[in-house]
Design brief:
There is one protein chain. The protein contains 14 helices and twelve strands. It is α+β, with helices and mostly antiparallel strands and 402 residues long. Strands 1, 3, 4, 5, 6, 7, 8, 9, 11 and 12 form a ten-stranded mixed beta sheet that branches. The chain has a two-stranded antiparallel sheet with strand order 2-10. Strand 3 and strand 4 form a beta hairpin. Helix 2 crosses helix 12. The two termini are 29 Å apart. One of its GO terms (cellular component) is plasma membrane.
């Protein structure tokens, strides 16, 4: 019987302990693989989030919230600003292009974004509609590919939008939207949005203005108000000039798209770092589990080891056997963990995209997996030294004395 076969049979002899040890290693590995896949998706997709629009003008408040809501469709707008501000910026000598935007409502969780259709042609000049035509009048909608798929929308379908970003806030039953076209997959958060004309938000809320005023509530969209202005500057430093001029206005802010995105990524990286610490702590627990498992096996098989010594097997054979068992446990756990990490990413990718607009590639191999395998083998070898040394030091004669 060769060394590998013997080691495998020894592991199978203690099925429960072997399975628990492999699971401990696989869970730690799966968590680390998932974290790296998400980080990889973030780094590859974050630059696509804002395209050529290096600045955003919006209501005073959190700059990060303004960027997240405008480009990534996360959270609520910071408030409204006057449409006249857009008209002024459109004529500004430092601005190559300004795009006004209204938003705040949704349909079954998908944001409804009011924006001139120029936005789509500028952001995605090579994109061709899957079906239908671009929107031309209020109420006509072009759906992102992900939104259309998840909501089962097709050209000609009609629906009623909802207040805010959740379904629980109530619907605008008096206003009907109609799907005019379906976008191709763009690979950005815009895949999960529903696009319509800028003035649609004003028309939707027009009937509610008197009712909201009587109840003391503030109308979400008055005619002539928008939530953001996307700025494509003429030069790389021109956003700074625009910010210096317009930040002084009451209730208005100018946010740098790249800077705020980097700040958001920094926060995400901090959170991911904490999760990595937990993951590596889990790896340490898995290593201790391997050590305890092998120590228990060695204690149970003292007579077996003594018998091997009596029939002439050298100490190196005993030690190599322990190492082989440890590495079988480790490699099996890591390979299973890699598989679970990719599978988990696959099943969670829709949830992650629906919330943050981050596209993941669940079955893309990552370099970290090689490091996990090599590092796991080295760590396993290190923790196995103690039980392995104890095993080959067994005195076979004493074991069989009565």
């Amino acid at each position: 019987m060769n060394l590998f076969t013997l080691s495998w049979k020894n592991l199978l002899h203690r099925k429960t302990l072997t399975i628990l040890t492999v699971l401990a290693v696989s869970v730690a590995t799966a968590l680390i693989v998932f974290i790296f896949l998400v980080n990889d998706g973030l780094s590859k997709n974050v630059g696509k989030g804002y395209g050529p629009f290096q600045g955003v003008v919006g209501a005073e408040g959190s700059a990060s919230q303004l960027i997240l809501n405008t480009f990534y469709h996360v959270g609520a707008p910071t408030g409204n600003i006057d449409y006249e501000l857009y008209e002024e910026l459109a004529e500004n000598r430092f601005v190559d292009m300004a795009i006004p935007m209204t938003r705040g409502d949704s349909y079954k969780g998908s944001p409804i974004v009011g924006v001139p259709s120029d936005y789509l042609s500028i952001r995605y000049p090579e994109a061709v509609l899957q079906d239908g035509t671009i929107y031309k009048s209020a109420g006509e909608v072009v759906a992102g590919s992900y939104a259309a798929e998840q909501l089962g929308l097709k050209v000609g379908d009609e629906f009623h939008g909802e207040h805010g970003v959740t379904e629980t806030a109530g619907a605008h039953e008096e206003f009907t939207f109609k799907i005019a076209g379906i976008l191709p997959k763009l690979g950005t958060p815009d895949d999960k949005a529903l696009f319509t004309t800028l003035d649609t938000a004003w028309l939707v809320h027009e009937d509610h203005a008197e009712e909201e005023a009587q109840s003391g509530a503030e109308a979400e969209h008055h005619e002539g108000e928008i939530t953001a202005i996307l700025i494509k500057p003429k030069g790389i430093m021109d956003v700074a000039v625009i910010k210096a001029n317009y930040d002084e206005l009451d209730g208005v802010q100018v946010a740098y798209s790249g800077k705020e995105t980097a700040n958001i990524l920094s926060i995400v990286d901090t959170g991911a770092g904490l999760v990595k610490v937990i993951a590596f702590a889990t790896v340490l627990v898995a290593a201790i589990s391997i050590l305890l498992s092998l120590s228990a096996m060695a204690a149970e098989r003292k007579k077996d080891i003594g018998l091997l010594r009596l029939i002439g097997k050298p100490k190196s054979y005993i030690m190599a056997g322990m190492m082989a068992e440890a590495n079988l446990l480790t490699i099996s756990g890591i390979l299973l963990g890699i598989l679970l990490g990719h599978a988990g990413t696959y099943f969670l990718q829709d949830l992650i995209f629906s919330y943050a607009g981050i596209n993941l590639a669940p079955f893309t191999p990552i370099l970290a997996e090689v490091y996990l395998l090599l590092g796991g083998i080295l760590l396993c070898t290190a923790v196995t030294l103690v039980p392995a040394i104890r095993s080959y030091r067994v005195d076979p004669v004493q074991l069989f004395q009565t």
